Amino acid sequence: MAKTSTPRALADNEARAVLRMIRISPQKLNLVAQLIRGKKVATALADLEFSRKRIATDVRKCLQSAIANAENNHNLDVDDLVVAQAFVGKALVMKRFHARARGRGSRIMKPFANLTIVVREAAAKQA
User: What's one Pfam family here (predicted)?
Assistant: First the structure.
């Protein structure tokens, strides 16, 4: 009595990559994720390449991983891929102590974030 296999969460023309425990606040990471949402993959890679944000290199690696998953695991055409979703979630928050004046202390929050990128194969336009 084997358990039935779980159906695939994504559609047949989609692939995703997840980057977990990134040492940046979700708010800052979301600014870079907004930069690539809805764009063609080639344009999104170019935008991330020339972005001045520090985290753009990690987002670029995650996008390249999603492209590789689409090509190798799901046999999708790389030229027709579009960034369907790029969403950010919270991970843990490290709490640290920083000494302040008059013997007081203040809490330093060091947040982590998760990034999920879903690429979708758009239908090729007929000429």
Answer: Ribosomal_L22
